[in-house]
Amino acid sequence: MLARLAVPNILAVATMTVVTFADVYFVGHLGTTALASLAVVFPFQTLLGMTSNGAIGGGVASSIARALGADRFADAESAAWHSLLVAGLMSAIYVVLLGMLARPVLSMLGVPENVLDGAVEYSRVLFLGAPIVWFAFMMSATLRGIGEMAIAGNTIVVAGVVHIFLSGALTLGWGPFPKIGLIGPAITYLTTHGFIAAYLLSKFWGADSKFRLRPHRFSWKPVREILSVGGPGLVNSSGLVLTVIVVTGFVSRFGEEALAGYGLGSRLELTLVPLAFGVGAALVTAVGANFGAGQFSRARRIAWAGAGFTFAVTTLAGLLVAIFPELWLDRFTSDPAVSTIGAKYLQIAAPAYGIFAAGQTLYFASQGTGRMVLPVIATYSRLLVVVMIGLLALSLDSDHTILFIGVAVGLAVMGLAQMLNVFASPTWNRDIDV
């Protein structure tokens, strides 16, 4: 059952990961400054995906799955419609803060002025189009909630293939395409997500569609249902990305090369979250349906099975790039200073990737329970560790090593805390199945 639900999502996430690699590869041809500019914006771009697809999207999928598990079909359709209203409000926040106010927001990171100029240009293009991304992911979340993983996943795969070609064409000026440089990936991202939104919307309006995305009378109840999971998810996603932003701010004090090197390493780290989401999105639906039906012990078995799979895959990947960092870094830069710093980061942090990714998978599984306070606290334990060790590194006037150790410890602490929640919390350990 888990494989049937998860495989389409994993394929979609694998495509999204390749898209991430491709964007870095193309921008890397523009030089170290462009690569550093992309590193500044990337945590915020990741936050856009996490909050829409993972946080609120998880809340939508969880609400719909629990309603269908309890045979409340009308409530499930109402949740799908209200998700679009939530998306409109949330996307407006991105438009204002990271689109219209990009320069004052990004300047708070203290990056060099030439790096800031490129970051602001990229941010304005991407986040002024944030509503496109939000509406695409709301419809994808609705399909996940009703168990139609293949439709949502296959659409993202096709869009990802188009993105890779179009991003390279616009960034580097292939053939008849104009060379528009750094903003090429941002324009491509909005174009492909527009395709996703249009296609998925058509699936709800087809003659054979049993689940309709249609207007419902406004009610706070479905909004509360979505935000009971998605609200803590927003806080959780913010904590994940805020950690990277804080470390980016610390690393920027060591110069442009350090920022680019850390950016390459942290980009690999953040791609693990979508990988965990590939399995975790299936867990939201499966756990939500089983909790809705009162089958608590089965929900726990499903959660641990998904986390075990993610742990095995990401531990292997983490150890591989820790031992051979050039496998990752040489794809994107030939600058020896950038490569040296990126390699140090991967050698220290990558061995903890498996624990981190398994914990993230269990976080998504927790979305299916509708109880998110402890999982969010677990995420912020990582931020606390990183801030404390980062401040220690600055007070000792050391190089990046202590800071990178703090990142690794934070990854492990967060993963173990999520495991402890599933293992011992009352929410997960109900003894009697209905």
Output the keywords.
mainly alpha, 434 residues
Textual characterization of the structure:
- It is a single chain.
- The mean pLDDT is 88.
- The protein has 434 residues and is mainly α.
- Helix content is 82%, strand content 0%.
- The protein has one domain (2-424).
- The two termini are 20 Å apart.
- Helix 11 (296-323) runs antiparallel to helix 13 (336-349).
- The longest helix has 38 residues, at 32-69.
- The chain has helices at residues 2-28, 32-69, 73-100, 102-107, 113-128, 130-145, 149-172, 184-205, 220-251, 256-292, 296-323, 326-329, 336-349, 353-367, 373-395, 400-424.
Secondary structure elements and pairings:
Blueprint: H1 2-28, H2 32-69, H3 73-100, H4 102-107, H5 113-128, H6 130-145, H7 149-172, H8 184-205, H9 220-251, H10 256-292, H11 296-323, H12 326-329, H13 336-349, H14 353-367, H15 373-395, H16 400-424
Helix pairs in contact: 1-7, 1-10, 2-3, 2-5, 2-6, 2-9, 2-10, 3-5, 3-6, 3-9, 5-8, 6-7, 6-8, 7-8, 9-10, 9-15, 10-11, 10-13, 10-14, 11-13, 11-14, 13-16, 14-16, 15-16
- Compute the CA-based radius of gyration: 21 Å
- Overall structural domain count: 1
Q: Helices and strands, in N-to-C order?
A: HHHHHHHHHHHHHHHH
The total of helices stands at 16
Uncertain spans, ≥5 residues at pLDDT below 50?
Answer: none
Strand content: under 5%
